[in-house]
Amino acid sequence: MSFFYLLLQLIAAILVAPLFDGMARKLRAKFQSRIGPSIFQTYRDLLKLIKRGRTKSHSASFIYQIAPYLMFATTAAMFCALPITYGSDAVFAQFSDIFVLIYLGALYRFMFIIAGFDTANPFAGVGSSREATIGFYSEAVSIICLIVVMLGAGSSSLPHIASIVSLSEGNYGYLVPSYAIASTAFLWVMYVETGRKPYDLAEAEQELQEGVLGEYCGKDLAIIDVALMLKQFSMLGFFLMLFEPWSFENPLLSLLLFLAEIGVLYVFAVFIDNFGPRFTMNKGMKRTMLFPFSIACIALMLYIIGV
To answer: Which residue in 284, 237, 282 sits closest to 83, CA to CA?
Structure first.
């Protein structure tokens, strides 16, 4: 039965993610005084891409062909590692670990970067470099926050952390200042990891921010798009499991609650996406990433002094 709920968790995310993406596109258009596409437009886009065949650049190697499937498998495994429909007594609880998510996230980023470089497209190369730079900064902040949480909880197991943070037990959580401060920096990093702005030039968004995928089309692009949406769910879910682990005993109710929480975070992300400032990469890193890095360091210092 646990495997059934785990499979249901993954299928629900794959089916709902395009709807959330369509709602985000519609909301973004409303903020910009446009009509915007239908909330089901992302489904139509994916179906149209799946019907098309595969193409391959003459300069690309086998990495180009296997990257979409590896990226999808990695993000699917990341999402399954989130203890949404199962607890610490389930068979999959050993797989649900912070280190598992860290390494799967690193594998996904590695595949994303080398897939861009492998095409020999100059825009893809620039996009891959930007992705590597963002990862260099964001992973440092997230690791510091995770160290605070793991040391405070005494475990790297997500089900264990979720159980002691939940209101039912309440012996670790927002009453601990280091934990509360770390949650702020971690939420900001997870927002960056979902591929949102402000790290781009508005007039060159497609070439720079999404240039990594410039050579992909058809079925491959559809698989990558689903993988990107699953990664967004996984990153936001990672934050929810650590800092807002609300759940019910019924797995279906827990899954519905999780999707509702993801929907709320999507709305906040679109709001920041539209009304937040835009920076070039260097200015963005200096003005925004140093801030969460400082907060994460403060959280670590508070933990060290026992606060």
So the answer is: 237
